[in-house]
Design a protein that fits this description.
The protein is 61% helix and 4% strand. It is mostly helical. The two termini are 48 Å apart. The N terminus is likely disordered.
């Protein structure tokens, strides 16, 4: 928590201004005002809010390119130059011819030698200084009139001398008709110069006052992507960065530059934690800014600021004052000085501290080593005397003060407290920190490792695996029960890790043997091996462990363990299609109890949500997952909450709630890069979304990450569903051999596992591939084996998938009317679930079957103008196209319209073509989005079922309307493009 090591040598390169982010509303409002002359805008904000960057942005706006843009800034000088910022701005006024000037303007010759050739001769000076000053003011106004349309930008007005202030007051009172002035100043200045800013204008002047506040989360994320040169940063990274910088643009930028400079040795863009922030050096510019403010404070205020830096968390004045040896009036005066100086801030609840960690760190670094030790020791005494001692803070202060024994005591006590309150991450951090220190006895290691191994199961931290492996390797003479406890948790963590399922189960089996004298602990291992969802181990093997779990259940006394086994049994029964699971769940009392019981109940809700979603009980799953996430978060069951978020995005996918889903899913996946179940489930969703967009290469990459080619390492429902998507992708790209090979592998996996209710997405796709390849026996076999496997099971989606599979077989054999009828039944079933994409697909297939049957009956084997017999099918096909469009499945909509054109049934809208002007039409917007994804013209043509020539025309219009210089520039411009009426 505190940095006490020497700062390493470093070089930080600033590569110029970054793009202005998060100020679109302010810029738009200011530009609108400035275009209505005369105009005056005052921009105010605390240090670091980006006033200067905003002025820079205004100076470069194309709206002002036809006139003069004149910029100047006040300087924090002991004796400022009279009229300094105004004269600095006017020096560039001669870059183009000036209008007529009267002799009075000659008074500016000695002040503006750069304009000497454009100014009249200098008149004789007046004897009266006030009159001479008035003449100078008149000359400045006249010169501004001669400039014609002009925008004057003045920065850092808080440092303006009185002469400059008087001049601005004079100009504001009677502004030239074509003049616009923008002045920026700092609020919260310790000198108080922000008061009395000279801008009182007459009614004819357009005026505005803009106050710049912190950036929001979205703006901080965009700034991070630009400065770190990353396509995307995770939501967790953005949230932590926003919290750590208070959204202050300058601090955000400097923190990101420090992260970028450390990119060779630190993980950037994914997770930003306290330890990573502590490892960063305070950027020089930020350090100088903080040091400057600190140097301006009186000595008692400096002591108070340093005491606050040692405390590191917002604290009450009395606590900070006790550390700084200040009380009464001296404390109040010092506190006011730190507030006025912008060093400390009031952070709510009568607590004071630093706005962001880097400011605290900059102050902390000014404290000498001996003084730090003294202050930390004093903090231990002060905090230990509080009614409820803050154990984590006491541990941190003890460590910083070098009191190792106290630190271990407080750290373990704080971890126990965190476990009791469900604060899983904090408990793991504390226990890990103690276990990694040298000097612990074996009994201490065993005790702490046992606690760590048990709490680690509530979350997922890959670093815990390494710690537990090291302890098992180093301590060879641990008691079997202790070794078994640690090994059991290690195995359970390995099972969750990508590619380590097999080894995890081996470790669990070893642990069960070691826990022979601890039946309740062994029961947890038995229970884990009874769960059949992962890998290719046959269900019959899991059934043996399920029977053992039932046998030990009745002998268990621990209520938390009984609840764990009961919950897992219910969710497993639901997964395999046992309808009694739901009845048992609804009859289960919502037990209260402590954190451990609440964790198990949360696990049950989350796991049952997953099971019900795979079975097709989507409404149940929706309620379960919402409540499950709430319960898991409240109880600190972070692993269960993470899994439930994976269920949530998959539910959104199958229910057709696709708006923003790709971004949400990517953020979830990136937040758990090592957690196999979440990565694979998210990859399935991303693969499915890419497939409907026609992004087949991306779809195949995502589906590979869903373990579609390595079923032994993944959750089998995910693997089989991913195989169903991949088969359709390969069929769409005419890779029939690849589709059949994928079907062969997935069907073999389903047969080996023996749980067919998980194959609902696979079977129709496999039947399609086999029938197209003429492999009729395999097609019939997989559909009928699926029918036997789901018979009597509580799985609505399986019943509907069976209809779809049988309809595909009928269609392939030329029994088109019968196939259409069964496709209609499947569509109705999918709609009831609801699974809209599958439902629309079934409606499309039914329409095509009817169309084919009609034409065969009429003896027309080729497409042509429709007749009365075709009308119903064509109407259904058009309805399917519109439904696909509403859902966001543009490629499928394009396919339907292509089929309609082929059958002579496509007619343009009778409402007439709308003129879009400079706005993108809906088709152009589709093309622009595909360009943003890096698609070629051929890929766009294939995805939208258009000719390459038509796509070329659309691309040309997109480039022109967006003002993009190239195809790659489209992606950048699309991030800010908002179609007219988008908010309506």
């Amino acid at each position: 928590m505190w940095l006490a090591t020497p700062r390493p040598t470093s070089v930080s390169v600033r590569a110029g201004s970054t793009a202005l982010v998060g100020r679109d509303v302010e810029v738009s409002a200011i530009v609108k005002i400035l275009l209505r002359r005369p105009a005056a805008v005052l921009i105010e904000g605390e240090p670091g809010m980006g006033r200067s960057r905003l002025l820079e942005e205004l100076a470069g706006r194309r709206e002002f390119a036809s006139g003069r843009v004149l910029s100047g800034a006040c300087q924090p000088m002991r004796e400022p130059f009279p009229f300094g910022p105004v004269l600095e701005a006017l020096r560039s006024a001669g870059d183009r011819p000036l209008g007529p000037l009267s002799p009075v303007a000659g008074v500016l010759r000695p002040l503006l030698p750069e304009l000497a050739e454009s100014l009249p001769p200098q008149p004789e000076p007046l004897a009266d200084p006030c009159a001479e000053r008035h003449r100078q003011f008149r000359a400045v106004r006249e010169l501004l009139i001669a400039c014609g349309p002009a925008l004057v930008l003045i920065d850092d007005l808080q440092w303006a001398d009185e002469g400059t202030r008087d001049l601005l007051r004079f100009l504001a009172a009677a502004m030239p008709a074509e003049l616009a002035v923008v002045a920026a100043y700092r609020t919260g200045s310790p000198s108080g110069h922000g008061a009395g800013i000279p801008f009182r204008t007459p009614p004819n002047v357009q005026t505005a006052r803009v106050t710049l506040g912190p950036l929001d989360l979205d703006a901080v994320g965009k700034l991070a992507e630009e400065l770190l040169d990353l396509p995307r940063v995770s939501a967790q990274f953005t949230a932590k960065l926003h919290e750590s910088t208070a959204g202050i643009p300058f601090v955000v930028e400097e923190t990101l530059r420090a992260l970028r400079d450390a990119a060779g040795r630190l993980p950037i863009g994914e997770v930003l934690g306290d330890r990573l922030l502590e490892s960063l050096e305070v950027p020089i510019s930020l350090r100088e800014a903080i040091t400057e403010r600190l140097d301006a404070l009186p000595e008692p205020a400096v002591r108070l600021a340093r005491a606050a830096a040692v405390l590191a968390v917002p604290s009450e004045p009395a606590v900070i004052g006790e550390l700084a040896c200040l009380d009464g009036d001296a404390l109040r005066t010092a506190l006011l000085s730190t507030l006025d100086g912008g060093v400390l801030g009031e952070l709510g609840g009568d607590r004071y501290g630093f706005r962001h960690p880097l400011a605290r760190k900059a102050v902390y670094d000014t404290i000498s080593g001996p003084e730090r030790t003294l202050l930390h020791s004093r903090a231990i005494k002060v905090l230990a005397e509080q009614p409820v001692p803050p154990l984590t803070l006491l541990a941190n202060h003890s460590r910083a003060a070098g009191r190792t024994g106290q630190w271990r005591h407080y750290a373990e006590a704080a971890a126990d407290e965190a476990i009791a309150h469900g604060d899983t991450s904090r408990a793991i951090d504390l226990l890990q920190s103690v276990l990694t220190e040298a000097g612990l006895g074996e009994d201490d290691i065993a005790r702490l490792a046992t606690k760590l191994s048990q709490v680690a199961l509530r979350g997922f931290r890959p670093d815990v695996i390494e710690t537990l492996e090291r302890i098992l390797e180093d301590l060879t003479d641990l008691r079997p029960s202790v070794r078994g406890t640690i090994r059991l948790s290690l195995g359970m963590l390995l099972v969750r890790t990508i590619g380590r399922l097999g080894r995890g189960r081996v470790e669990v089996e070893k642990a069960i043997t070691e826990l022979a004298d601890e039946p309740e602990l062994a029961a947890r291992g038995i229970n884990l091996l009874a769960q059949p969802i992962d890998g290719l181990t046959p269900f019959s093997w899991h059934e043996v462990w399920m029977e053992r779990a039932r046998e030990v259940f009745d002998r268990l006394e621990d209520p938390e363990l009984r609840l764990a086994l009961l919950g897992d049994r219910i969710s497993t029964q639901a997964h395999i299609g046992d309808g009694s699971a739901w009845t048992e769940f609804t009859e289960l009392a919502d037990q209260g109890g402590g954190v451990a019981e609440r964790v198990q109940l949360a696990r049950l809700w989350c796991n049952l949500a997953d099971a019900q979603s795979w079975a097709g009980h989507l409404a149940r799953a929706e309620k379960l997952v919402t409540e499950g996430i709430r319960r898991a978060t409240d109880a600190g069951a972070l692993y269960a909450a993470g899994l439930a978020q994976g269920t949530r995005v998959r539910l959104d996918w199958v229910r057709g709630d696709w708006s923003g889903l790709a971004e949400t899913t990517e953020q979830l996946r990136d937040g758990y890069p090592d957690l196999g179940p979440i990565v694979m489930e998210c990859s399935l969703v991303l693969g499915g979304l890419a497939a409907v967009r026609g992004e087949f290469a991306a779809a195949q990459r995502h589906l590979a990450a869903a373990s579609v080619h390595a079923p032994e390492h993944g959750p089998i429902p995910v693997v089989l569903s991913a195989a169903g998507v991949l088969i359709r992708v390969l069929l769409a790209t005419d890779d029939l051999d690849g589709a059949c090979a994928t079907a062969d592998n997935a069907v073999a996996a389903a047969r080996r596992k023996g749980i067919w209710v998980w194959a609902a997405a696979l079977v129709p796709a496999a039947a399609e591939a086999y029938t197209r390849a003429g492999r009729w026996s395999e097609a019939d076999a997989v559909v009928e084996e699926f029918a036997r496997g789901v018979d009597g099971k509580d799985s609505p989606v399986s019943r509907v998938a069976l209809l779809a599979g049988r309809a595909i077989l009928l269609d392939a054999r030329g029994k088109h009317p019968a196939a259409a009828t069964v496709f209609d039944e499947a569509a109705a079933g999918y709609e009831a679930l609801p699974m809209p994409y599958q439902a629309i697909g079934a409606r499309e297939r039914a329409a095509l079957c009817r169309l084919t049957a009609s034409r065969l009956t009429a003896g027309r084997l080729t497409a042509g103008r429709p007749d009365a017999g075709d009308r119903k099918a064509i109407e259904e096909l058009a309805v399917a196209a519109e439904a696909y469009e509403r859902l966001g499945a543009t490629r499928d909509a394009g396919r339907c319209r292509h089929l309609l054109r082929e059958h002579g049934a496509w007619a343009p809208s009778q409402r007439g073509r709308r003129g879009y002007g400079q706005e993108l039409s809906p088709r152009e917007l589709e093309v622009a989005r595909m360009l943003s994804d890096g698609r070629t013209n051929r890929e766009i043509a294939d995805g939208l079922f258009l000719s390459p020539r038509t796509v070329e025309q659309h691309v040309a219009k997109v480039l022109r309307k967006l003002g993009a210089r190239s195809r790659t520039d489209v992606a950048r411009r699309m991030t800010t493009y908002a179609p007219a009426g988008a908010d309506r």
